[in-house]
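Quick start: load a record and inspect it. Here is 6-phosphogluconate dehydrogenase, decarboxylating:
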Amino acid sequence: TTSQIGLLGLGTMGAALALNIANKGFRIAVFNRTTQVTRDFAVQAGDLAARITPTEGLQDFVAALSRPRAIILMVPAGQAVDDQIAALTPLLDAGDLIIDAGNADFHDTNRRAAAAGDVRFMGIGVSGGEDGARHGPSIMAGGDRADWDRVAPILTAIAASHDGVPCATWMGPAGAGHFVKAVHNGIEYADMQMIAEVYGILRDGMGLDNAAIAKTFRTWNDGALASYLIEISGHVAAATDTLTGQPLLDIITDAAGQKGTGRWTAIEAQHLGAPVPVIEAAVAARNLSSRRDERAQGQAAFGAAPQAMGDALTATDLERALIAGKIICYAQGFAMIDAAARAFDWPLPLPDIAKVWRAGCIIRSVMLDDMATALARSDANLMLSAPFTDLLRDTHVTLRKVVAQAALHGLPVPALSSALAYFDTMRTHRGTANLLQGQRDFFGRHGFERLDRDGTDFHGPWAD
Ligand code: NDP
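Running the structure step on this input writes:
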């Protein structure tokens, strides 16, 4: 009997996804560039091997699939994807489907979808890391709706589910799935950064040790902040290094890596004119984190900041600041997706996107369930939707207090302060861009509008 689906690329994610597919009762054929990896995988599959067909050549791989074929690619984003499409296409028939499940730049997915001919192409974002891929990821699909409908029975079966609703949804054509995955990752950067900033206050401002910090995260994980990222932050803070017996967190270098999805989100947001400043701050913070030597020079030149803040803040203050920061950050992310829906003419259903993120993915949290409800009820900015308006009324003063105390004590909180600046901007009717318009008219005759008259091309007295 032939396999219902194929998977190419048995790395961390591909192997886990293949086991998940077999575990859900589907017959799957697998192929990997390095043959030994395929052989090891077949052994490691155990009982599931009965539903897995390992193949050692592309022709055998393609021949093992029932038609019309569907093949998932799980290889590094970029050239490897183009190479595999080029290698597979001549072996495939009209109506066969290639699905790129890696972290592609959605512009690449747009290009590949546009270039697809008789052999169909989809791009799907898969989130949840290795464990998610094995036991239930969150899946954000892009491509032709008919192609999605064909593979949806398998992809919804392997996805995470929240209250019985699968976390796998069609977001729109072409690169729509990879676009939503990129924004997911951007929000992930921001969520992580805000937690790290609060960790800095707990550690350097309030003088808590790792055990107390871990306990604080555990407590928060029972409240409004309950989420995978708060949960794992607690585990990381509590961990002991196996080499030295020291608290693990104290020996991890403070320089963060990144693969680019957060940066893509920030850049795309600028293109769309729908800024996501909290995500931008998080991307910048990762970049600056890697300049350790420069920071050492800075500390030598200016001295260390006072940092210790006594009892100026409580852990509850920090929890409330994080709640406010999180709502503001997600408001930006959803506003960006909304702008993309208009600019690209894609469905990008906001409530369904919030639903897909409720389980399986890295940013999963209890708050996303309320966000799904709020976004279904109203298309206003999330900050202006119940229950988030009330939550923000309740917490923004504390966010201000935390940002102010951090500033006074020299503790950098770029993402939280950016969230506060966005909040203050969006609640200020009379802003200061009148001066910008005056400046622009002065040096460039760009003209301005007036509050007291209709028309768009007024000039200042300098025009004469
Ligand atoms: P790995 O490095 O673990 O695996 C890469 C796989 O791709 C291997 O099977 C490798 O084969 C194969 N491969 C590499 N280059 C080529 C090539 N030029 N031609 C053919 N096959 C190739 O990567 P991951 O599983 O971590 O990541 C795969 C994709 O999933 C990436 O796009 C990643 O961004 C994305 N992703 C990863 C997540 C994670 O948590 N790791 C989460 C979500 C998405 P070989 O054995 O021969 O080297």
